[in-house]
Write a structure and sequence with these properties.
Layout (H helix, E strand, L loop, with lengths): L1 E5 L3 H17 L4 E6 L1 H6 L2 E5 L8 H6 L1 H18 L3 E5 L2 H13 L3 E5 L11 H8 L2 E4 L4 H6 L6 E2 L4 H7 L6 H4 L6 E5 L4 H11 L10 E6 L5 H9 L7 E5 L2 H6 L1 E7 L2 H8 L4 E5 L3 H7 L10 H6 L6 E3 L5 H11 L2 H17 L5 H13 L1
Parallel strand pairs: 1-2, 1-4, 2-3, 4-5, 5-6, 6-7, 8-9, 8-11, 9-10, 11-12, 12-13
Helix pairs in contact: 1-18, 5-6, 10-11
Length: about 375
């Protein structure tokens, strides 16, 4: 069968690549064409557009790039029709993908959605559109089935794919010596988009000077050139003792005593790797003012949403200051606070379900298609 997949960010590239591998096991004749990233390309098929060309974060950024976004919609629709896919598989990236779902359904295409859209966080009425335009929905968070069932939509809860990704990761035993790290690590995960990286690092970098007994390590996003981070660090006016390492986020977290994480999938990765964390987010002022009027959930991090309490501290927009980060980091580095957080992490791992999400999803997809 012919599968067309659409991904808009790094985490989607990871989950889609594992889904593609699982689909190949279920359907040896599987043919892939996709908007995605390097990990998907490594599995096989044809990469049409890389997700780094789609990374517009926030309302203001979207408005500034509206012409490009419209062109992306047009070219994607044309490519899907030319390819004559048996199914369109959408992975997260709801702003773009929900519009594609509506169009695809109007064309008579089968539409599957993996990593269900987080409409429970804001504009929950969009669940009605999902019911209309999505044939099969595959959820990965434990509270999502109850939410979607309110709208009369059957949902496949498949567990979270990160359970497998983390447990199957091959850690580098020489990581510390290879990167000449001789002090305990504090990990900085400032996001995967340039806008958020720039805003968050401007706040985080001054914190380094207060923790000279630790090695700060920035986990660079795979689609962002190292020069982008280096330019931000250079603007501090002097050399800071920071390591900048790409393609080694899990190795960094494995050795970290604490982490400062921009909200997103990375918060859950830090939890599964048992790293005490503080969650940060800072966006464009206007985008934030608009977004906070729509957000309906009490927390922004997946960790706290699953735990149903503020297990880890969230510093959002105006609360994200150098002084606040410094204060929270000092607390994280105490044995008492670290122990409380790690106990909460154990409960989160149980709530995420059984391992094997990619395989279960592939089996269900192929069964529905056949």
């Amino acid at each position: 069968m012919k599968y067309y997949l659409i991904v808009g960010e790094a985490s989607g590239d990871l989950h889609a690549s594992n889904l593609m591998k699982a689909l190949q096991q279920e359907d040896p004749q599987a043919d892939f064409r996709f908007w995605g990233g390097d990990m998907m390309a490594a599995v096989g098929g044809q990469l049409v557009k890389h997700y780094r060309e789609l990374a517009f974060m926030g309302i203001v950024e979207v408005l500034r790039n509206v012409r490009t976004i419209k062109q992306n919609f047009r070219s994607c629709k044309e490519d899907i029709l030319t390819y004559q896919a048996d199914v369109l598989i959408l992975i997260d990236y709801s702003g773009f993908n929900l519009r594609m779902a509506k169009w695809a359904k109007q064309q008579g295409l089968k539409v599957f959605y993996y990593i269900a859209p987080q409409v429970w966080a804001s504009r929950s009425d969009r669940a009605k559109d999902i019911k209309l335009y999505v044939d099969q929905l595959f959820a990965t968070l434990p509270f999502e089935p109850a939410f979607y069932e309110q709208y009369g939509m059957p949902i496949n809860f498949v567990g979270h794919p990160l359970l497998d990704v983390v447990d199957q990761y091959s850690f580098d035993p020489s990581f510390l010596t290879r990167h000449h790290i001789h002090q305990p690590i504090i990990a900085l995960l400032p996001g995967s988009r340039k806008q958020e990286i720039n805003k968050v690092l401007e706040v985080l970098l001054p914190v380094v000077e207060s923790f000279r007994n630790y090695q700060f390590v920035i986990a660079a996003a795979p689609a962002i050139p190292l020069s982008f981070y280096q330019d931000i660090i250079a603007r501090r006016g002097h050399k800071l003792p920071i390591k900048l390492i790409s393609d080694s986020t899990y190795d960094i977290l494995k050795h970290a005593k604490a982490a400062i994480v921009t909200s997103g999938t990375a918060t859950l990765e830090a939890a599964l790797l048992d790293v005490p964390q503080v969650v940060c987010y800072k966006g464009n002022w206007l985008s934030y003012q608009i977004a906070k009027r729509f957000i309906k959930v009490p927390y922004i991090s997946l960790v706290n949403l699953i735990a149903e309490e503020e297990l880890v501290k969230e510093l959002i927009q105006y609360d994200l200051t150098t002084a606040h980060v410094r204060q929270e980091l000092e607390l994280l580095l105490t044995a008492k606070k670290a122990s409380i957080i790690k106990e909460g992490y154990r409960a989160i791992r149980v709530a995420l379900g059984e391992k094997g999400a990619s395989e279960r999803t592939a089996q269900l997809m192929v069964r529905h298609l056949r």
